Amino acid sequence: MKPYQQYLLGLGLAGSLCLPACTTQTNTNTETMTTAQQAQNQISEDVHSYAEPTKAVARHLDLDIAVNFDTKTLSGTASYDIENLAKGNEIIFDTRGLQIEKVYLGDKQEETTFRLGESDKYLGQPLHITIKPETKRVTIVYKTSPDAAALQWLNPQQTAGKKHPFLFTQSQAILARTWIPIQDSPGIRITYSAKVQVPKELLAVMSAENPIEKNATGNYSFEMKQPIPSYLMALSVGDLVFSKVGAQTGIYAEPATIKAAAYEFAEMDKMLVAAEKLYGKYRWDRYDLLVLPPSFPFGGMENPRLTFVTPTVLAKDRSLTSLIAHELAHSWSGNLVTNATWDDFWLNEGFTVYFERRIMEELYGKSYADMLNVLGYQDLQNTLKELGETSEDTRLKLDLEGRDPDEGLTDIAYEKGNFFLQNIEQAVGRQKFDAFLNKYFNTFAFQTTNTDKFLEFLRTELIKGDEALAEKINIEGWVFSPGLPQDHVVPTSERFTKVEESYQAWKNGKPAAQLNTKDWSSHEWLHFIRMLPEQMSQQQLQDLDKAFNLTNSGNSEVLAAWFIHTIRNNYTTADKALETFLTNVGRRKFLVPIYKALAATPEGKKKALAIYAKARPNYHAVSTVTLDEMLK
Q1: Are 373 and 494 within 8 A, CB to CB?
Q2: Which residues are known catalytic residues?
Q3: CA-to-CA dists, residue 326 to 39, 69, 281, 400, 417, angstroms
């Protein structure tokens, strides 16, 4: 029995693998479907993968690789347990920029033929491997290229400690194929084990069971017993130490960062308890964080058992930890129940934003969650304005064929998805909606789903033929139509109303130093800065900066929002801090709007290009792809 099947059976989930629309034979005289076949029936066609999983599919990976910082390459073998469902003579994997050296079949390592197909800008090349009808194992000997998009190689100067090099991966959306030959579709789940050889002075960690300290050999072994999609394959290597937070939680970081990180994320256990209270037991054993160097392109990446997180949330006051609630929520929405294709990305992110806000409400009260909703709504409005409210890309159900799926990583999936779920909650009541979500997570656990399957589940389990309720929920308006439904509820915040009163007082001439901002959270500061007029005098900027020291803020959210105003109004006092920020922070959420603001004028464009020339080596490919295009 394959590890994938063993794991599901161990959880008692094998019998629940079929969706409501899928039935299995239970008569003992009739051949029943295997667990793998049931799972296979759910795989959606994925236009971003060359794999043909209904014919031959990987179920378990044994990875054995060496990390070479001198050549900036990984090399070794990827051995797969496969199921040849069609009993054909070929299995296809995704690759991009990989050097495939040899391929073997079976435990006896019988060499076989292979070929790489035509290359595509986004998809890379299909790896066609000749197999036999009875083949159950395939071993691929390979090497990565130094410019593999998923691999970020940092020299010592680019780390917090400045002494040792660092490596981290970013596989989402379709970059796993740049460091492993793999069936790179979110609709295909595998279990895996790994052996990784690294320099002796460094520690390796993965999205799996992890060591908590370095050993003398530099050889590390890993196991992920729960089946995961390829985009959750993750590896990091660096001068790392571990700090325990709770029985199930802890933090990995560089020695120079670990103390600050341990303080910032001290409430991880409380978040885990709050999440389990809402939507059931955490199913991944441990929940640890890895604080990466600043070049990490995202706020966080929900790699199972080990969330990768940006150091930009180390605000010294625990004010940005909703990001951790978000990544923790992914342990249910995304990791446990996964979007089958990137066209269904909202099923990962919309659910996760909704869940994140519920965790924060559970911990800090409704007024806190209300602030997050308002800020999220502002982000959504900006995205709608940028894309155009009639753009097809503002639908929840996307069509990304022929494009990089990263184009779907917008606030539409996150915030429109969240507000759709909040709309359902308002229509049926929180208690009923929570029961529905619990059933959803349990029914689809360790499986993939898509928009149509979710909506069928919604109609079957919640709407149940109630036409008035269906009209309130408005599936067509939220999921398949661009923009927002006209009758959508605009979120409000009592705490923000007080911020708006302070803003009006300042706008009417009250000096900034006299405003009552003593107990403001990061969210209140962000709301205040976002309200500031696009055009301000140097005197107004100086007044704000002198009173609140915004240019030297230690809060990355506040700083990034402030820089938009200093750029627009040529407030040169902030130029040095701006350049320092852009050369040290690689988070795409901050980089894109700041560089865009700079590029809006010829003088600013010149400044942007000068900074970018220095900063680009510090950025991950996920960021540079966007910025290269923006800055030409």
Answers
A1: no
A2: 327, 414
A3: 27, 32, 17, 25, 14
CB 585 within 8 A of CB 260: no
Q: Determine whether 492 is exposed, middle or buried from the number of CB atoms within 10 Å of its CB (0-12, 13-18, 19+).
A: exposed
Tell me the pLDDT tens digit for each residue of 177-228. 999 999 999 999 999 999 999 999 999 999 999 999 999 999 999 999 999 9
pLDDT value for 42:
53
Residue pair 183/93 in contact by the 8 Å Cβ criterion: yes
Asked if residues 257 and 296 have their Cβ atoms less than 8 Å apart, the reply is no
Amino acid at 559: L
Cβ(203)–Cβ(166) under 8 Å?
no
Question: What do you get for the CA distance between the two ends of the chain, in Å?
Answer: 53
Q: Which amino acid is at 471?
A: E
Q: Dmax over Cα atoms in the chain, in whole Å?
A: 85
Provide φ and ψ at 166, rounded to 5°.
-145, 145
**Hey, what are 69's tokens?**
């910082």
Task: Yes or no: say if 100 and 140 are a contact pair by the CB < 8 Å rule.
Answer: yes
What secondary structure does DSSP assign to 44-68, as a single string? PP-TT----TTTSEEEEEEEEEEEE
Please say whether the beta carbons of 80 and 188 come within 8 A.
no
Short-list 172, 404, 145, CA closest to 308: 172
> What's phi and psi for 490, nearest 5 deg?
-85, 120
- Burial class for 241, CB neighbours closer than 10 Å (0-12, 13-18, 19+): middle
Q: Is the peptide bond before 621 cis (omega within 30 degrees of 0)?
A: no
Are residues 360 and 325 in contact, defined by beta-carbon separation less than 8 angstroms?
Answer: yes
